[in-house]
C-alpha cells in the first residue's frame, strides 16, 4: 500500500534541499536571476536588466521578462518536492523596462489538485507592474527529494 504524502509537510521537511535543487538552474544563473524566496506554492526572484537583454527599441526584451516569470513559476510549482512541468503559460506585457532596472518576479499558487496547479506571476520594477502571467503545471508522481515512501 502506498502512503500518501502531504505536499506542505514535504516542503517543510525538505525545504533546504528543494531550494538548493531549484536554484541550480543554469539558464537562470546565466541570466543573473537570483532566487530570493521559496515557500509552499510560492517563489520570488530578482534580476537586473542588462544591455544584452534589450530589444531593437532599447527596452527589455520580452524574452527576458518571460524568463524570470517562467523561473519563479517553475520554482513555485516544484516547491513541494514533487516534479512538476509547465503545460501552459500566458503572459501580458504591461510596461517597458530599461537597462539597469532591477525586476522582481513573484509567483503564487492559485489552485492545486492531484495532477495540475495554477499560478499567477507578477513581474515588477521599482515603478510599476511590467508583466502579468497565468501559468498551469502538470504534477508528476515522482518526488525529487527524499525517498519515495510506500
Automatic annotation (TrEMBL):
<feature type="domain" description="Thioesterase">
    <location>
        <begin position="57"/>
        <end position="128"/>
    </location>
</feature>
<dbReference type="InterPro" id="IPR006683">
    <property type="entry name" value="Thioestr_dom"/>
</dbReference>
<protein>
    <submittedName>
        <fullName>Acyl-CoA thioesterase</fullName>
        <ecNumber>3.1.2.-</ecNumber>
    </submittedName>
</protein>
<dbReference type="InterPro" id="IPR003736">
    <property type="entry name" value="PAAI_dom"/>
</dbReference>
<dbReference type="InterPro" id="IPR029069">
    <property type="entry name" value="HotDog_dom_sf"/>
</dbReference>
<dbReference type="InterPro" id="IPR052723">
    <property type="entry name" value="Acyl-CoA_thioesterase_PaaI"/>
</dbReference>
<dbReference type="Pfam" id="PF03061">
    <property type="entry name" value="4HBT"/>
</dbReference>
<dbReference type="GO" id="GO:0016787">
    <property type="term" value="F:hydrolase activity"/>
</dbReference>
<keyword id="KW-0378">Hydrolase</keyword>
Amino acid at each position: 500500500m502506498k502512503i500518501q504524502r502531504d505536499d506542505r509537510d514535504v516542503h517543510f521537511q525538505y525545504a533546504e534541499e528543494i531550494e538548493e535543487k531549484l536554484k541550480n538552474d543554469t539558464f537562470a544563473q546565466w541570466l543573473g536571476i537570483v532566487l530570493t524566496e521559496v515557500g509552499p506554492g510560492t517563489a520570488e526572484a530578482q534580476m537586473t536588466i542588462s544591455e544584452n537583454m534589450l530589444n531593437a527599441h532599447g527596452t527589455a526584451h520580452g524574452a527576458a521578462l518571460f524568463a524570470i516569470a517562467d523561473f519563479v513559476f517553475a520554482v513555485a510549482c516544484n516547491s513541494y518536492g514533487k516534479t512538476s512541468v509547465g503545460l501552459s503559460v500566458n503572459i501580458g506585457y504591461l510596461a517597458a523596462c530599461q537597462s539597469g532596472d532591477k525586476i522582481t518576479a513573484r509567483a503564487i499558487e492559485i489552485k492545486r489538485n492531484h495532477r495540475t496547479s495554477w499560478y499567477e506571476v507578477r513581474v515588477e520594477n521599482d515603478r510599476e507592474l511590467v508583466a502579468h502571467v497565468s501559468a498551469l503545471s502538470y504534477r508528476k508522481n515522482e518526488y525529487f527529494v527524499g525517498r519515495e515512501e510506500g
